[in-house]
Amino acid sequence: MNHMLPAVPSQHDPDLEADIAMDEMAAEEEKPRPRLAIPQLSAPKLSEGEKVDFDDIYRKRMEKDMGELEGLIAAHFEQRKREEEELVALKERIEKRRAERAEEIRIRNEREKERLARQAEERARKEVEETRRRAEDEAKKRRVLCDGSSHFAGYLSKAWRNVLSCLCVLQSCLANCLFNDCSTYKKKLC
Fold first, then answer.
1. What stretches of the chain show up as alpha helix (H) in DSSP?
2. Which of 46-50, 113-117, 182-186 has the least mean pLDDT?
C-alpha cells in the first residue's frame, strides 16, 4: 500500500486537544512501567506540502524490528547455549562426585572389614593365649600340690618309718628287759 498523503496543516482542533489531555491524565494515573532500552522514534519533520511515503516508513520500521528481533533471538540462543554448557558441566561434576563418593565408601568398607578381621583375629589370639596361660597356671598349681604332697608324704613316710623302727627297737628292748638284763640294751637305744 502506497499511501501518499499531504502533510497535515497545523490547525487547532478542540476535540483532538481534549483527547490528548484525557490521554495524558490517564497516563499520569497509571503506574510507571519499566521500559526496555529502545531508542525513541521521533516523528520525521516534514515541511508543509510534501507527501509522506508510508511504505518507506513501514519498511524502515519493519527492518528495525527485524534487527531487534534477530538480536534478541541471537542473545537468547547464546544464553541457552551457555546454560546448556553449564548444565552439562554440572552433570559431569555430579557424576564425578558420585563416582568419587562410591570409591570412598568402597575403600572405607574395605578398611572397616580389615579392621574387624584384625579385631577378631586379635580377640581369638588373646583367647588362645588366655586359655594357654590358664592351663599353665593350673598345671603349676597341680605340680606344686603334687610336689608338696609328695615331699610331705615322703617326709611323713620317712618319719613314720623312723617311728616304727624306734617302736620296734623299743619293743624288743622292753621284751629283753623283762626277760633279761636291761643294761645291755640301754646302749643300743642311745
1. 14-29, 54-179, 183-189
2. 182-186
